[in-house]
Amino acid sequence: MVALPYDYYLIAWFALAAVSTAYVAFDQFNGNPEPTVMKWGFILVTLYMGPFGLLLYVLADKEPHPGEHEQFTSPLWKQGIGSTIHCVAGDATGIILAAVVTASLGLSMWIDLIVEYIAGFSFGLLIFQSPPGQRYDVIWTARKPGKWLVHCHIRTTPRTTTSSSTAAAG
User: Matching Gene3D superfamilies, A to Z (predicted)?
Assistant: First the structure.
């Protein structure tokens, strides 16, 4: 039931969010070569952010032509958006699920805060970062000499490292 004038804006926003999410979901599962966890990451972030999530997807991840995904996503700013989407999707989903559970149980705010923090961290880590039983290999190039902090989203070439941060010959 629409009670106040701003309710129309909310209805319009939710409709835009639903259409944006449907488009991203359809496009992700019909030809985008991203890993499944990244597909779900963009879908969830678009669900949470509506047209802004769609804009991020189109700018940073939507394959312009078949076979051009790696080249299209190679700029560092696009990899940064992908990394952020990857992390936000997991953490936000855990926090939202925990908020629903704690609100349903009528728990106090301080317990809600702790449960949301733990759920956001755990869901992000165990579902979106390193699901049990899975391993990811990353290939990267150090462009300048020095010590490098290896993170799970940097894609380039010659040196290979695994998710456990042990180096292997590339």
Answer: Cupredoxins - blue copper proteins (2.60.40.420)
